[in-house]
Design a protein that fits this description.
Oligomer: single chain
Radius of gyration: 16 Å
CATH architecture of the largest domain: 3-Layer(aba) Sandwich
Strand order of the largest sheet: 2-6-1-7-8
Distance between the termini: 4 Å
Mean pLDDT: 92
Number of strands: 8
CATH topology of the largest domain: Rossmann fold
Helix content: 40-55%
Order of helices and strands: EHEHHEEEHHEHEHHEH
Shape: globular
Low-confidence stretches: none
């Protein structure tokens, strides 16, 4: 188990996916799980400020990751592209702040992590979901750099993305349930000014130091 936490735009998905491929582990994007719940809520016309209905959805949602690629399925349907929609992104930030939703997703994440060797990335993996993980990384970057990366990915307006990201950072860090914070035993990695390859090598070095050539990170 390799737990990677950090704010939006720090490069978690890119690095976690690449690390999983290098180590032969499964890659789990927990953010996609919250996005899937948000997508279902929007399709069902459920208010994303309704904690009880959202918790019910989260408990009923069947979310699957296909090994070897980036496919995400919700109740059997491929939602890989749909969960990246701007409306879903905005809704997912609110959905992820709901304690009941987080509890439901946490149970599912622990089930997945118990069944196989994984690189799991999110906001509370090393602090709440897998506090005993041997390898914990807190991946961060300068806020403007993070916003720039997200703008490049989405083709959005930099100022708008920077504002939305700042709001999301505030929600993530101040929510009552599992706030975004660095675990005391997590290694801090600043990706500002580094290429994805350099970040990957830095984290692989940490993996090797904490395990036996990465083989003990299960």
């Amino acid at each position: 188990m390799i737990a990677i936490d950090g704010p939006a735009g720090a490069g978690k998905s890119t690095i976690a996916r690449s690390l999983a491929r290098r180590l032969g582990f499964a890659y789990i994007d927990t953010g996609a799980m919250y996005r899937a719940v948000a997508l279902w809520a929007l399709k069902a016309g459920i208010d994303v400020d309704d904690p009880l209905r959202l918790e019910q959805l989260a408990r009923q949602a069947q979310i699957e990751f296909t090994a070897g690629d980036n496919t995400v399925r919700l109740n059997g349907e491929d939602v890989t592209a749909a969960i990246r929609d701007a409306l879903v992104t905005h809704a997912a930030s609110k959905v992820a702040a709901m304690p009941g939703v987080r509890r439901a997703m946490r149970m599912e994440q622990r089930r997945i992590g118990a069944e196989q060797s994984v690189v799991m990335e999110g906001r509370d993996i090393g602090t709440v979901v897998f506090p005993d993980a041997r390898v914990k990384i807190f991946l961060d970057a300068n806020p403007q750099v993070r916003a720039g990366r997200r703008a490049a990915e989405t083709g959005g307006v930099l100022d708008e993305i920077a504002r939305e990201m700042a709001e999301r950072d505030e929600r993530d860090r101040t929510r009552a349930e599992a706030p975004l914070t660095q675990a005391p035993d997590a290694e801090y990695v600043d990706s500002t000014g580094l290429t994805p390859e350099q970040v990957e090598e830095a984290i692989l070095k940490i993996v090797r130091e904490r395990t036996s050539n990465g083989k003990g990170a299960h």
